[in-house]
Amino acid sequence: xxxxxxxxxxxxxxxxxxxxxxxxxxxxxxxxxxxxxxxxxxxxxxxxxxxxxxxxxxxxxxxxxxxxxxxxxxxxxxxxxxxxxxxxxxxxxxxxxxxxxxxxxxxxxxxxxxxxxxxxxxxxxxxxxxxxxxxxxxxxxxxxxxxxxxxxxxxxxxxxxxxxxxxxxxxxxxxxxxxxxxxxxxxxxxxxxxxxxxxxxxxxxxxxxxxxxxxxxxxxxxxxxxxxxxxxxxxxxxxxxxxxxxxxxxxxxxxxxxxxxxxxxxxxxxxxxxxxxxxxxxxxxxxxxxxxxxxxxxxxxxxxxxxxxxxxxxxxxxxxxxxxxxxxxxxxxxxxxxxxxxxxxxxxxxxxxxxxxxxxxxxxxxxxxxxxxxxxxxxxxxxxxxxxxxxxxxxxxxxxxxxxxxxxxxxxxxxxxxxxxxxxxxxxxxxxxxxxxxxxxxxxxxxxxxxxxxxxxxxxxxxxxxxxxxxxxx
Length: 474
Hints:
Blueprint: H1 2-20, E1 32-37, E2 43-44, E3 47-55, E4 64-70, E5 77-81, E6 87-91, E7 99-107, E8 113-115, E9 119-123, E10 129-137, H2 142-152, E11 161-169, E12 175-181, E13 184-191, H3 199-212, E14 217-223, E15 238-240, E16 249-250, H4 251-259, E17 265-271, H5 278-283, E18 288-293, H6 305-314, H7 322-333, E19 340-345, H8 350-363, H9 369-378, E20 387-389, H10 390-399, H11 405-421, E21 422-427, E22 439-441, H12 445-455, H13 459-463, H14 466-473
Parallel strand pairs: 2-9, 10-11, 10-14, 14-17, 17-18
Antiparallel strand pairs: 1-3, 3-6, 4-5, 4-7, 7-8, 7-9, 11-12, 12-13, 15-16, 18-19, 19-21, 20-22
Helix pairs in contact: 2-6, 3-4, 6-7, 8-11, 8-14, 10-11, 12-14
């Protein structure tokens, strides 16, 4: 690697001299790219800066550099860096400990590209988990919160697993931070009464827990009532964590919380009703790697923390992708019927892109709008009847004989996208049979009229034509 850097510096010098004496860089070199960090043969961990340098007559026209990371059990990963720094962060904690090769490719004007020599690095992270639970029992779920704490106490924290809880109660003023041990709770801090519906309280807990209990892998569970992208009243965007002595955290605020955290959370869990929606996921996209929650309402007992945490403790070196599936499976096994739970990835906007294409196709065919509205009314729905399964909606469009090819093709693309991003899904009960893991807002006319102002504030509404499609329909 040292020889590559020396060669690169020599070429930089040649380019400079040619420019000083009036020579043409076109005759010298058009484009050269080399990885300057990390260096070849090094061992890396945690967050690593990927950095490249480019020179040549086309260097000023380079629009991006793509780093392709190959190795381990996954498909190659591509991270993109932009001028002028050509630098981006690589979170090695989501990659198994093994060797990887990295190559950089620069894209310049006129379709010109250049590839760097390949470097090799070894990822070696000390596997350690911090499992954070933001437990809002300041409402009618206090007894359920205490019951879930009892479940957690069956699994103690270890030097590889920290189980950290911030608890608020309804019948007692104050706020408590605990480390969960076998059969007991270790009191870490007692705080004054906190409004768990204040996004700053959530942000403060996350930052405190990650600072005081650093790990290579983080899980955050937001525990309480949930209402999808909006609250029960329907008009304000109140998504989760209802504090009866305060407020609640809306979807926009939730996105702001995750935007304020220094690093993505590996697994974001929402032990709450109705939160597995494309609109919610889109708001926190790229701020976590997996989202685990429910399309339907959840029973008060919520997740079975005893079996989930026991599995994690006994298989502490499991791949990050395994825990979301374990949560889904353990949850489904703990209830007989009438529940849903699913896990989806948060590093891909494929579903949003394909939903946008579907919305455009529907908007372009006004002659079938009446049929589309009929299909909406028959699509799999949940306790809020305007929350409906996205895959089921697309499938019904695709299978309808009156739909034009453009809508059928776009609908199939949505179905494929849902399958690509949903990593685990479970549902039980005949009334939930057409669930596939992601809900979306599909209201009727009156529901759209009451909710469209709030919906327009969401990133999903800004980034897609979904709301415009609904406006066309109604």
